Amino acid sequence: MKLHNPWPTDRSINTRSPYGWRTHPISGRRAFHQGVDVAGVFPVTTAGDGIVVHVGFSRTGGGHVVIIKHADDLFSVYYHGQERTPLRKNQRVRAGDFVYTSGSTGASTGPHLHFETRYAQRWGATKDPQIFFTGSQPDEPTLGAPYKVSVAVNGKQSKAVWKAWQAALKTRWRFEGILDGRPGPMTWRSVQRFAGVTVDGIPGPKTRRGVQAKLAELGLYDMRVDGVWGLGTWSAIQRGLNQGLL
Predict the structure, then answer these.
(1) How far is CA 165 from the centre of its chain?
(2) CA-CA distance, 57 to 59, in Å (whole number)?
(3) Angle, alpha carbons 170-190-156 (nearest 5°)
(4) Is 112 helix (H, G, I), strand (E, B) or coil?
(5) How is 46-107 classified by DSSP, letter by letter?
(6) CA distance 150 to 11
(7) 3-state DSSP assignment of residue 117
(8) CB 150 within 8 A of CB 168
(9) Are 2 and 93 in contact (CB under 8 A)?
(10) Burial environment of residue 100 by CB neighbours within 10 A (0 to 12, 13 to 18, 19 or more)
(11) What is the mean pLDDT of each run of 10 residues along the chain (246 residues)?
C-alpha cells in the first residue's frame, strides 16, 4: 500500500538520518537506524487510514510514541512528539489526521520526528518507509461510484475476496475500517447496508439470506435463498465485484 508523508511538504528526511546504518547521534557508535528523521517543529499527521494500536511514553526511547495499524498488517510509528497525542488507543483515523507536534521528548538531541514503518507491531520489525512513499496504487474511486476489481470466480471465500469487498463497501456502503480482508462488525454493518437488512454487525442467517436475495435482485444469483453461503453465493459475490455491482 502507499502511505502519505506524515510531515509538511516543506520538510524532508535528514540526509544523515535515513533508514539503515549510521553513527548514532547520542552514543557516537555505529548503529542501525530503524526509521527516518525529519528535523524541526511541525504538525505530524497520520500516514494513512488505520486504527491506533499504541499510545505511550518512553523517557529513554521514543518519548511520546504513537503506533497506527494500516491495511496489509503495516504499522506506522511516530516518535518524540512535543506533547501527548489527542488520539486514543483503538481510535480509527484517516490519512492526514493530526497526531501531535514534533518535539524532542525521549532520547533526542533536538526537535524532530522519527518515523518508522513496521510489518509487525514490535520494535525492530521495520522496513524502509520510503518504499511505501514511492510505491504505486490505484487512485481511490469516487465515493458512491461503482468499484470494479478483478478477482477469480472460483466460489471460494478468501482474504483477498474479503479485502476486495471491503474496498467496494468503503466507496458505496460507508465502510470505515481497515482493508485487511478480515470481516469484523464494521465490515458486516456495511454488508448489511448493501443487503438492506437490520444493521447490527452480526453475521446471522437473516444477513446471509439478505445478501443472497440482493445478489438475486442484481441478477448474480439464481439458487435457493437459504442463508448458507457456498460455492454459488461466493461465485455471485465474486462476479458482482468484477462487475462493480457490490
Answers:
(1) 15
(2) 6
(3) 85
(4) strand
(5) -SSSEEEEEEEEETTTTEEEEEEE-GGG-EEEEEEESS--S--TT-EE-TT-EEEEBB--SS
(6) 38
(7) strand
(8) no
(9) no
(10) buried
(11) 91 93 86 96 95 96 96 94 96 93 96 96 93 60 66 94 92 88 94 96 96 96 96 96 92
E-only strand ranges, the chain? 20-23, 30-33, 36-39, 43-45, 50-58, 63-69, 75-81, 92-93, 98-101, 112-118, 126-127
Q: What is the pLDDT of residue 145?
A: 62
Could you tell me which residues come within 8 angstroms of residue 132 by beta carbon, excluding any fewer than 6 positions away?
1, 2, 3, 47, 74, 117
Overall size of the chain counted in residues: 246
Measured CA to CA, the distance from residue 187 to residue 82 in angstroms comes to 36
Q: Which three cell numbers stand for residue 235?
A: 461465485
User: Distances from the Cα of 124 to the Cαs of 23, 35, 118, in angstroms?
Assistant: 18, 10, 8
Residue type, 214: K
Angle at 89 between CA 5 and CA 127, to 5 degrees: 40
Going along the chain from its start, the domains and CATH numbers come out as 20-134 (2.70.70.10), 159-243 (no CATH)
Geometric angle at alpha carbon 192, from 189 and 196, rounded to 5°: 140
What are the cell numbers at 122?
514490535
